[in-house]
Amino acid sequence: MLELPQDLVTPAPPPATPRLAARYAQLLDAAARFATLEYPDIDITAVAEEAGVAFGTAHRYFPSAAHLLLALHRRQLLELRARVEDRASGSRTEAQRARLLAGAAVELFHMRLAQPAVNSCLDELIVPADHELTGLVGEVDELSWSVLGRLAGGAERGRSIVHVISGLVSAVRTGRLIPLEAEKQLKASCEIVARRRTSRAG
To answer: SS3 sequence, the chain?
Structure first.
């Protein structure tokens, strides 16, 4: 399990001014390149240097690697949600929605598998209930559940699929499954969820 440093400062909210918003985006872009590393290898100084942003600016918004990686994943989930909503708007049948659900779940699975540092934040990070980072963790969790829930028939079903994804990523990372087999199992889980939605609707 990963533990947060004890002496973190409260980060500034995402900036609204165009110049600072661009720097914030540059930091997240750089973080995406570092997210392929393991969590202990994430260094805010190196990310800031890669982004061409002063360390003080980076630290103001991201006082720890966890803040940075969770903010990165929040952005990725918002982008995934936009893609899902765009695809779902033209879907009329349950079969179409089931295919979209499997596609979105597989996309999230590969996103987490390709970013060990992000995955560690989601599955291994210990965040005390009274820590200010709890809000960001909750926001990321809710986003992931709602993105899949949009196609699965509710946030609770979306949450179930996210838990399946977490388990499958862990199984691949520990060598118990190959990615192709994990993907097949995930699609089968999505099919079960979609079938239950159809049977209840009938």
So the answer is: CEECCCCCCCCCCCCCCHHHHHHHHHHHHHHHHHCCCCHHHCCHHHHHHHHCCCHHHHHHHCCCHHHHHHHHHHHHHHHHHHHHHHHHCCCCCHHHHHHHHHHHHHHHHHHHHHCHHHHHHHHCEECCCCCCCHHHHHHHHHHHHHHHHHHHCCHHHHHHHHHHHHHHHHHHHCCCCCHHHHHHHHHHHHHHHHHHHHHHHC
Q: What is the pLDDT of residue 169?
A: 97
Question: Which residues, at least 6 apart from 180, have a Cβ–Cβ distance to it below 8 Å?
Answer: none
Residue 68's φ and ψ, nearest 5 degrees, are -65, -45
pLDDT in tens, 140-156: 999 999 999 988 989 99
What is the value of pTM for the model shown?
A: 0.91
Q: What is the pLDDT of residues 60-113, one digit of tens each?
A: 999 999 999 999 999 999 999 999 888 888 766 878 888 999 999 999 999 999
Half-sphere exposure of 82 (CA within 13 A, CB side): 5
* Residue 140 to residue 145: CA distance in whole angstroms: 9
